[in-house]
Amino acid sequence: MVRKDVSAPAAQGYRLPAEWEPHAATWIGWPHNTTDWPGKFAPIPWVYGEIVRKLAESEVVHTLVESITHENSARRLLERIGANLDNVRFHRFATDRGWTRDSGPAFVVREGKAPGVAVSHFGFNGWAKYDDWKKDGKLAAWVASRFRLPLFDSGIVLEGGAIDVNGRGTLVTTEECLLDPDVQVRNPGLDRAGYEKVFRDFLGVTNVIWLGRGIAGDDTHGHVDDLCRFVSERAVVLCAAGSPEDENYAALSENRERLQGLRVEGGGKLDVVALPMPAPLLLDKRRLPASYANFYVGNSAVLVPTFNDPMDRIALGILGELFRDRPVVGIHAVDLVWGLGTIHCLTRQQPREPAS
Predict the structure, then answer these.
(1) Is residue 239 annotated as a catalytic residue, yes or no?
(2) Which of 177, 228, 239, 345 is an active site residue?
(3) In this predicted structure, what is the pLDDT of residue 242?
């Protein structure tokens, strides 16, 4: 049975590492909910397969499946595309959806004389919007129990896509997602100071950057992983709209103003790199949240969603200059984004246990 700790993990030396720090594994849920991709489900397993194929070159990929039939289907596809199945572990855990970034565990690490990995547990409630979340809401605690990891219960709802960290004490999030008092309210009554205390106690964060609104079409009401991401301890990429006529232009410009002159922990200036956006993609006249910021940093590659757009090449080039220690790889995501999320939304990193 998993141990639930009553003291906060930061007090015991734990912190949430940056995504580019070494992974033991990546967690992903093999797709099964056809309503996530209306009329577009057929190509989705193949996109997942390409993500798994690239990640399994250098790390374990823990893959959640519904049943032996679901597992066999995934296994056959991965075999056909040449994925390294020695690095794929299947787990029969029933889920509602496939957005593991938001329902999966937040793994925290501790260095020093007693190194280790634990789980800071945050609840999940379907983005305070959907009813089918109760299976997903059990995932983080199940992982902690399955791997006998200490579990620190925060008592609040927080999706992984709502935050991003540099691993050294600075976190970026949005007011739209966490502080809106009327729309998709995850934690009624929890204010800015309350969130910052949770970040400090459960993630080891000492410096919080609050942006304003997220991008148009974002079903989560402002997740930061479609908007602004750390690419090093002192640098972020921030999405930029090319035209003042774009509905994202005002919000992105305001977020850029907020970042100007900000500093990370220790007083260093925060570098802000503009990341372009693709031309609007629409489904039934609704804009989809197509964003290059929804990339995922694996051990040996950065996987970036691409959209058959002239900006694909530019975005890949910018990220390639920023991540010089591993290749930057484009993953076709025009079909994937019909589900209102792409690569980062589907994946959750499990850090490697620090050496003693």
Answers:
(1) no
(2) 345
(3) 87
- Let me know: does 19 contact 296? Beta carbons within 8 Å: yes
pLDDT digits (tens, 9 = 90+) for 285-304: 999 999 999 999 999 999 99
Relative to beta strand 116-123, strand 23-29 is unpaired
Instruction: Fill in the DSSP letter of residue 15.
Output: B
* Amino acid letter for position 201: D
Q: Which two tokens stand for residue 68?
A: 């032996």
Query: What global pTM score does this model have?
Result: 0.97
Among the CATH numbers 3.30.750.24, 3.40.640.10, 3.75.10.10, 3.90.280.10, which is that of 4-351? 3.75.10.10
- 19-36: b (≥16 Cβ within 10 Å) or e: bbeebbbbbbbbbbbeeb
Q: Is the dihedral of CA 298, 302, 303, 304 positive or negative?
A: positive
Geometric angle at alpha carbon 59, from 54 and 60, rounded to 5°: 105
